[in-house]
Amino acid sequence: MPKTIKRIALTSLILTAAVVAGSFAAPKTGTANEAIAVEEARDPAVERARREVRMLDDIYKTAIVLVTEHYVHDDTDLPAGRAFKALFEAVGKKGWHEVRLVDATGNPYSDQNLPKAGFEKDAIKQLLEGKSVVDKVVVEGDKKFLLAATAIPVVMEKCIMCHENYRDVAKGKAIGALSYKVPIQD
Ligand code: HEC
Asked: What is the pTM of this model?
């Protein structure tokens, strides 16, 4: 069989198989989204934004733990969470990225820290189910952003000094998250 005919035959075989498989597969919706997700996973610009989130997350969380360990001695001291909210606001104003300290327990100190409807709420749900990070690419006008949420578990006994509601939380389970919006640069 000549090569082109062979290729056509093979293509139609694959197409038929795909159609047959498709008609048996339950919901067809989401296929387009999955295709986009696969494409994004391979996009080096998205990968760079993911790396940026991993780096920021490591630095912020390490610093929050160090501050809590060395500077917070009783419940009247300035909590690292509060200090870092001020830092996050300053960083946001300078236009580097946006980052929020978000609650996952439903019982935060401040309602400002409740997850916002949409990505944050969906992400918190997945973090509570055991994921350590959830992310999503969004397009606003001609700009692309990576939204990402990373889990915060109860990392040390001292957290409970102020957050009594963390006492009975299973070890390793998320009680909060850092929620990021990082520009994707081509
Ligand atoms: C000295 C008291 C204190 C300690 C210790 C403390 N926090 Fe907080 N935390 C606060 C306060 C107060 C807020 C609210 C800050 C605001 O919104 O201005 C807060 C906010 C938070 C939030 C956002 C949700 C909410 O409750 O509003 C998370 C998540 C959080 N803290 C996690 C932790 C973790 C994890 C630790 C241990 C590393 C910890 N905190 C230690 C006092 C504390």
From this structure: 0.82
For residue range 25-39, what is the model confidence (pLDDT) as tens digits?
A: 344 444 556 655 666
Q: Is the CB of 179 under 6 A from ligand 1?
A: no
Q: Assess whether 116 and 83 both reside in one domain.
A: yes
| From 103, 162, 167, mutation site for ligand 1 pocket: most ligand atoms within 8 A of C-beta | 162
Judge contact between 133 and 126, C-beta under 8 A.
Answer: no
Please give the number of the atom of ligand 1 that sits closest to the Cα of 76. Answer: 1
One domain for residues 141 and 93 = yes
Are 116 and 149 part of one and the same domain? yes
Q: Verify that 22 and 54 share a domain, yes or no.
A: no
**Ramachandran area for residue 132 (φ above 0: left; ψ -120 to 50: alpha; else beta):** alpha
Ligand 1 centroid – CA 85 distance (Å): 10
Q: Which domain holds residue 158?
A: 44-183
**Which ligand 1 atom is at minimum distance from the Cα of 102?**
23
Residue 162 Cβ inside 6 Å of ligand 1? The answer reads yes
Instruction: Tally the domains of the chain.
Output: 2
Judge if 25 and 72 occupy the same domain. no
Q: What is the CA radius of gyration of the chain?
A: 22
Q: Which atom of ligand 1 is nearest to the CA of 159?
A: 37
Give the pairing type, strands 174-183 and 98-103: antiparallel
- The residue ranges of the chain whose pLDDT is under 50 are 1, 3-6, 8-30
